[in-house]
Amino acid sequence: MTKSHRLSVLIVDDSLGVRESLKATLEMAGHEAVAVENSRDGMAALASRRFDALVTDLWMPGVDGIELLRLTQKNHPAMRLVAITGGGPGMSIETAAALAETWSAEKVFLKPFDERELVSFLEQDAKDAD
To answer: How many C-beta atoms lie closer than 10 Å to residue 17's C-beta?
Structure first.
């Protein structure tokens, strides 16, 4: 990846630890990251500015990450979508991953995951697009 291509990433996760850690990892890699705790705040952020990518948890109170993926794919079709999950109520991780992919998630990372792998995934595809 060229140093001139700085990614702008929106992180949506109800876990403060996940948000802060992933935001710090992205920023240490030279990217901009905005982290919010729920889909409602994520939709507000998406309405207010442009992001290169959305990284969202699938299981959150209120509007879940699958619905956020669906709405984002509909309203921002060029945005890159990545899902993260540790599983959830009433649905297997495999089923959740399939649903996320149905709504255009390029990849699903299962918690716990190496955050550097997620950053590398985003950077590699950005490099390929240059």
So the answer is: 8
CATH number at residue 40: 3.40.50.2300
Strands 53-57 and 80-85: parallel
84 close to 56: Cβ distance less than 8 angstroms? yes
Helices (H), 9-107: 16-28, 39-48, 65-75, 93-102
Give the domain range for residue 88.
8-129
Instruction: Say if residue 61 is preceded by a cis peptide, omega within 30 of 0.
Output: no
Tens-level pLDDT at each residue, the chain (130 residues): 344 489 999 999 999 999 999 999 999 999 999 999 999 999 999 999 999 999 999 988 888 898 999 999 999 999 999 999 887 667 777 887 888 888 889 999 988 899 999 999 999 866 555 4
Nearby residues of 120 by Cβ (< 8 Å), 6 or more positions away: none
Domain count, the chain: 1
| pTM for the full predicted model | 0.89
